[in-house]
Specification:
The chain has about 250 residues and is an alpha/beta fold. About 50% of the residues lie in helices and about 15% in strands.
């Protein structure tokens, strides 16, 4: 995998990934390369399409207990494991297609972020990320209860961290009639900046799916007044807060 440092900067600047997520994506790409060959060669061959097709593993495949079409060994669930690898490779192919050119200060900025993240063991940002990841996993498993009219978009959980325009929608949902709902998750307090973020996602989705009705939903621990004011300008974005439930299981 060439240009790995440039890929890291792209994930940081264009995809909004934090340092630990970037490290995870790089690790996933290397794992795929170890078993499926150099990603650069796959990009030259067909922009990675045949590799991405092999990494696909649908809910029907899982139901029928089918083997994977790729060579990467998966420890655990074949569908979710394959989806994680596919998402990382898809990001790399998007990076290659973008012909990304960093600014003069990009390397210095990324190196500083990396050193800060490595030196601080217990920072609030990482705690929020971990909690947000747990929140996302919990929500995905309860989509039919939380959004009864919707299902996760596409096959193989494609709508989870849905990639569009080099950006990631936390969860993209779809109604039977084709209407879409982009869900943005925040583990803490969401402010007006999140409104700009989800508005960008809605614009990208409207460009890609011009014949569908598209709305957004921000789910957060708390909603501050600036976000409430921002959403008064449109009926396309709704606001929801969550409550986590703790359950204990007796082992002995």
């Amino acid at each position: 995998m060439k240009n790995i440092e440039l890929f890291k900067i792209w994930l940081d600047e264009e995809n909004g990934s934090d340092f630990r997520t970037i490290q995870s994506r790089i690790s996933n790409c290397r794992t795929v390369e170890n078993h499926e060959g150099d990603l650069e060669e796959h990009f030259i061959k067909d922009n990675g399409k045949s590799l991405l097709d092999r990494l696909a593993y649908s809910t029907e495949d899982e139901r029928n207990q089918m083997p994977t079409n790729h060579k990467v060994p998966i420890n655990g669930n074949l569908r979710t494991g394959s989806a994680t690898l596919k998402q990382a490779v898809k990001l790399y192919m998007t990076f290659k297609e973008s012909n990304f050119k960093p600014s003069e200060n990009s390397n210095k900025s990324f190196d500083l972020k990396q050193s800060l993240e490595e030196e601080i063991d217990n920072i609030e940002v990482w705690n929020n990320f971990s909690y947000e990841k747990d929140l996302k996993n919990s929500m995905v498993s309860q989509i039919t209860e939380l959004f009864p009219e919707y299902k996760i978009f596409g096959e193989n959980n494609e709508g989870v961290e849905y990639l569009i325009g080099g950006k990631r929608v936390d969860i993209l949902l779809e109604k039977n009639n084709g209407n879409l709902l982009a869900v943005e998750l925040k583990s803490g307090t969401a402010n007006f900046k999140v409104f700009g973020q989800i508005s960008m996602y809605l614009g990208l989705l409207m460009e890609k799916f011009p014949n569908r009705k598209i709305k957004g939903c921000i789910v957060a621990g708390e909603i501050d007044s600036t976000l409430k004011s921002a959403t008064k300008t449109t009926e396309l974005v709704s606001l929801k807060t969550y409550k986590m439930k703790l359950e204990l299981t007796t082992e002995l």
